[in-house]
Design goal:
By secondary structure, the chain is α/β, with parallel strands linked by helices. The protein has helices spanning 22-34, 53-61, 76-80, 115-140, and strands spanning 11-16, 39-44, 84-88, 101-104. Helix 1 (22-34) links the parallel strand 1 (11-16) and strand 2 (39-44).
Length: 142
Amino acid sequence: MSDPQKPEKPSVLFVCVHNAGRSQMAAAFLNHLAGDHIEVRSAGSAPAEHVNPAVVEAMAEVGIDIAAEIPKVLTAEAVQTSDVVITMGCGDACPYFPGKTYLDWKLDDPAGQGVTAVRPIRDEIRTRVHNLIGEIITEDRL
């Protein structure tokens, strides 16, 4: 039975510069691995026109289709309504609100890279997302 004092489910926002690579992969993995147990968002401080095709291909290789995703602009509201904000190279562009958990994942940027270079970034993101789920679920049960 759920505790009425706790929010319905925790929320995570992934932020990178273009919202075309790292944050899209992280959001897709979290959606795929956590299902509807965690609310997932992604955004970019300077969003691109479309998701990086090499990122789409690399994710398709692991059975996750992100071809229809569209990069979104980072808003203060998206940060304010998230419990955990994970930045990936967007520097100080992310607004700060007290009470949020902020993490900065240092990851190579897949922009301009081919699928061969994107695969290790994808695999590192999958590992970090898997670990994040364990941390969020543990904290949520406290």
